[in-house]
């Protein structure tokens, strides 16, 4: 009797195992940083921002007068023009005369030579100074 039960159990186990089929298990990343769909970026970003309890303290933007703003822009444009002249002289596109320029809080000494242009910068408010050597590319 026991043999009959064991044989019946084995036959039913084999029958059930052939009826069961398996499929491939796949996983798709959601987060775009790990190869997921880029359309999920904004959803994850807004979720992360909502959970962020650390926020940078906002600094008030200092108000400047129109005259102060004009002065700062003019100084920036003059410094930019001087930097362009130095770069053009380094590539042999124009001549650069040696000299010392005082623009705002900066004193700039330009010393061209055959192989390089030496630019010595001094911040007159702090006393910090640096020298930049621009090689000639003729």
Describe, in short, the structure shown:
This protein has 138 residues and is of the alpha+beta class. Helices cover 39% and strands 20% of the residues.
Task: Give the topology.
Layout (H helix, E strand, L loop, with lengths): L1 H18 L21 H11 L14 H25 L8 E5 L2 E7 L3 E8 L5 E7 L3
Antiparallel strand pairs: 1-2, 2-3, 3-4
What would your notes on this structure say?
The chain has 138 residues and is an alpha+beta fold. The protein contains three helices and four strands, in the order H-H-H-E-E-E-E. Strands 1-2-3-4 form a four-stranded antiparallel sheet, covered by helices on one side. It folds into two domains: 30 residues, no CATH class; 70 residues, Roll (Nuclear Transport Factor 2, Chain: A). The relative contact order is 0.07.
CATH C-level of the largest domain = Alpha Beta
Which word captures the global form? elongated
Radius of gyration: 37 Å
- Helix content bin: 25-40%
Looking at the overall shape, the CATH architecture of the largest domain is Roll
Remind me, CATH topology of the largest domain? Answer: Nuclear Transport Factor 2, Chain: A
* Cα-to-Cα separation, first versus last residue: 106 Å
How many domains, in number, for the residues?
Answer: 2
């Amino acid at each position: 009797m026991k043999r009959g039960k064991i044989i019946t159990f084995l036959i039913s186990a084999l029958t059930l195992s052939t009826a069961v089929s398996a499929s491939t298990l796949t996983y798709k990343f959601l987060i775009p940083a790990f190869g997921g769909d880029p359309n999920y970026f904004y959803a994850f970003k807004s979720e992360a921002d909502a959970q962020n309890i650390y926020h940078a303290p906002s600094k008030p933007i200092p108000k400047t007068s129109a005259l102060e703003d004009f002065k700062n822009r003019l100084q920036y444009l003059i410094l930019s023009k001087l930097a362009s002249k130095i770069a053009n002289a380094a590539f042999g596109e124009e001549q650069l005369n040696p000299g010392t320029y005082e623009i705002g809080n900066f004193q700039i000494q330009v010393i061209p030579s055959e192989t390089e242009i030496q630019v010595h910068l001094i911040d007159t408010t702090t006393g910090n100074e640096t020298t930049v050597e621009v090689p000639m590319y003729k």
